[in-house]
């Protein structure tokens, strides 16, 4: 940052502080974030068949994502507590795992990007908690802001907008000691859990 654009979360002495947004206009604001939980084929099959031992993993992850958005200022130290007016969490089972997308909306003086990102993060953690007996090597990846709107800066969209895809290894990529990697970058014969 330049002298014309100081770091907003630091005071004149360089100490962290919460930015004063009281002078900003209240506007409608929204933000959408996404992420992926990479899973072994057995975990994907269990989700699709509804046979996850702990129950409805997708429903639990959805509720956890909503709760996570509401608790964001408790987790992110300099995040303003704002009144959330809506949080939507969508989970899609794909061949490589679960795609998660969360949208948060408010009418306030500051944006809801952190609430959307926290929602995706907590939904992913809850999903792993639900599925870990089937796949203890599940991987959370590609959590990112997709778009935001409202406020002085208006609309911003990620140039490659869309739900985060898998972080797949290159076709035929090999681990010199263990063989081809799966979608999570793990070799198929890597030990998993109690095997």
Layout of helices and strands, plus pairs?
Blueprint: E1 27-38, H1 41-49, H2 57-70, H3 72-75, E2 84-94, E3 97-108, H4 113-131, E4 139-149, E5 156-157, E6 174-175, E7 179-180
Antiparallel strand pairs: 1-3, 1-4, 2-3, 4-5, 6-7
Helix pairs in contact: 2-4
Describe the model:
There is one protein chain. The protein is an alpha+beta fold. It has a domain at 27-150: 2-Layer Sandwich (Alpha-Beta Plaits). It is built from 4 helices and 7 strands; from the N terminus they run βαααββαββββ. It has helices at 41-49, 57-70, 72-75, 113-131, and strands at 27-38, 84-94, 97-108, 139-149, 156-157, 174-175, 179-180. The strands form 2 sheets. The protein has a 5-stranded antiparallel sheet with strand order 2-3-1-4-5. α2 packs antiparallel against α4 (113-131). The N and C termini lie far apart (51 Å).
Describe, in short, the structure shown:
The chain has 195 residues and is an alpha+beta fold.
The CATH top-level class label of the domain at 27-150: Alpha Beta
State the distance separating the first and last CA atoms. 51 Å
Unreliable parts: 162-181, 187-195
Radius of gyration, whole Å? 19 Å
Can you summarize the main beta sheet?
Answer: 5 strands, antiparallel
CATH architecture of the domain at 27-150: 2-Layer Sandwich
Q: How many extended strands?
A: 7
Within CATH, the superfamily of the domain at 27-150 carries the name Molybdopterin cofactor biosynthesis C (MoaC) domain
How do the strands line up in the largest sheet? 2-3-1-4-5
If helices are DSSP runs of H or I spanning 4 or more residues, what is the number of helices?
4
Question: What percentage of amino acids are in beta strands?
Answer: 25-35%
Helix content: 10-25%
By CATH, the topology of the domain at 27-150 is Alpha-Beta Plaits
Overall pLDDT metric:
83
Structural class of the secondary elements? alpha+beta
